[in-house]
Amino acid sequence: QVQLVESGGGLVQAGGSLRLSCAGSGSINRFNLMGWYRQAPGNERELVAHITSGGKTNYLDSVKDRFTISIDNAKNTVYLQMNSLKPEDTAVYFCHARWLGDYWGKGTLVTVSS
What is the Cα–Cα distance from 19 to 8, expressed in whole angstroms? Predict the structure, then answer.
């Protein structure tokens, strides 16, 4: 049983910062890929960023230069440092990981006030 547990969401003013963490546990050695998706009310879930175990990253265009994803393979943990947050970043952020299948966290709410 693989579990992903997110933390770090909350309320922040525009221009502020938050750091999300997602720790994976269970019968795994190492995830091939970990990342973050988000879903705002009325919108589809979209990829924010992902990172391979080798460190290759990919970002949503609108968050490039503001968000940074990193991974600690030894801890099966992925982080998302979010700077210069905007109201349009408000969403539920879901952790995603891949290893012989796709796994999801329950989500953490990020609210950015104007």
Answer: 6
Nearest-angstrom CA–CA distance, 33 and 95: 11
Burial class (CB in 10 A: 0-12, 13-18, 19+), 74: exposed
40-71 pLDDT, tens digit per residue, is 999 999 999 999 999 999 999 999 999 999 99
**Strands 33-39, 91-98: pairing kind:** antiparallel
- Of 20, 24, 21, the closest CA to residue 3 belongs to 24
DSSP state of 40: -
pLDDT one-digit tens code per residue, 9-34: 999 999 999 999 999 988 777 899 99
